[in-house]
Amino acid sequence: MLKKLTVALTAAALALAAACGSSDSGSDDALVIGASPSPHAEILTFVKDNLAADAGLDLEIQEFSDYVQPNIALNDGLLDANYFQHKPYLEDFEAEKGLDLAWVGDVHLEPLGVYSKKVTALDALKSGAVVAIPNDATNGARALALLADQGVITLKDGAGVAATERDITANPKGLKFKALEAAQLPRSLQDVDAAVINGNYAISGGLVPSEDALALESADGNPYANGLVVKTGDEKDAKITKLLELLQSPETRAFIEEKYEGSVLPAK
Question: Pairing relation of β-strands 101-109 and 154-155?
């Protein structure tokens, strides 16, 4: 009985944490938006502090440190929207979890980067080097594509956003890949030869993508823009539409360009 009670209380505490997060306090009429701390919550905070009031919006920002709970909380009605992911990840997550969420619009791109504490160039990686990559399907494929673009490996034609290690057709250095939860990748740098890290986790881990990355994704034709997501049916809600306008506004674009200096790019 004690064990069951402990499990129940833990579950309740987790639900409360998801509902409260590290949020700004807001009114009952506030739009509650779940976001990764950096850069998503920072961008939302700029909008909240500089643009939202004049547009008649009250924003409440709840921060999440992983890529799972923001979609679960949105599906469960604890959020009005979230802003932390790209469309391929959303589509993969929906299919896996059976959720019914909807993409509203693109806001920014965080170029995925390759980082290392042991080498200063990709061609300096030794034979058999260990490279950490994200363990979710879409970002794992994205990491492999970046390495292929840099000539480190070769992928089967057409592998695209569904690429896995099975699609590697050439690996001259015999690299070994270690799949880790995306948030753990910055902390893994001491334990591996290199890691392919999502932009938001690189920034929150103290890395400067435009300076520290051995290689970065190009923004041209990139399908991995991060954007605003809601439950299906809420895409045309007036407040959601207005929020997207503010996130895509010239003022927000200028903020992104000035603050992140190429480490985060406005979506094209």
Answer: unpaired
